[in-house]
Design brief:
Chain lengths: 83, 199
Amino acid sequence: MDPLETLASIDVPPPPSPRRFDAGVRRKLHPRLLLSHLLEFAFGATVWALFHMATAAGAALRYTLTGRWPSPPSTADSPEKQP
Amino acid sequence: MHSIENDAAGPTDEDLAAQAAREGSDGAAFTALMDRYRDRVWRVCWRLMGSPHDAEDAAQEVFVRLFFDRGKFAGRSRYSTWLHAVAIRTCLLLRRSRTRRRRREENSDRQPIEEAADRTPAGTAAVDATHDIHQLLANLDEEDRALVLMRFGEGHDYEELAGMFDTTAGACRMRISRIREKLASRAGRLFGEPIDAKG
């Protein structure tokens, strides 16, 4: 007889109870889910906030060094365009 | 966890997988998939890990991975095949990391199977065949061992194996044939006569 065929005849023990098994899955899943949310926040929201604050932070730094605010962007009714 | 309302036939695995990909954590579809596949994942993990404790740990790890990868099922194969592939990969990873850890922790004095076979007493017929076949398989490459266990232990056909191991049915057949030859050369010393090496 092919010894490999004996593998099929080996009885697999019954699985643990669904309640215990699912509790184990949750125990493993929840910390990782929390970590993934934290990482998502760290690399998503924080980067987004820093990017949007970069202009203001740059202007504040420039003011600190030069004592002048950067000139505001030109608008349609700016004095340069008036006759 | 929630339950899912099924119609008479119930949603297919693929429907549930698509629903699970859209829902958040602890969703009904994922829970339903867990209920459907808990036993099958357990069987695969027990076969590959070899002990109930490791199998439970691995099976839980499989479902954690399935949860995080639930959006990655593309529907190119049956859901059950994809799930088996995830289970096999997870078990192989766990076995490799445990083997590495064990090797680090202890200077193993395990002897290769050839030496063990040489020390086997003359009455090899008395040796338990199940134990011997596991001893033989332990000396195979991890993926080859998994392939043999899925083919002969779980009875999957070559098409299913091809999906699980991300290869072709022909390649699986060829690989099994090579494994048989490899085992036959060793089994002669364990079983007293060579394994029937035909595919």
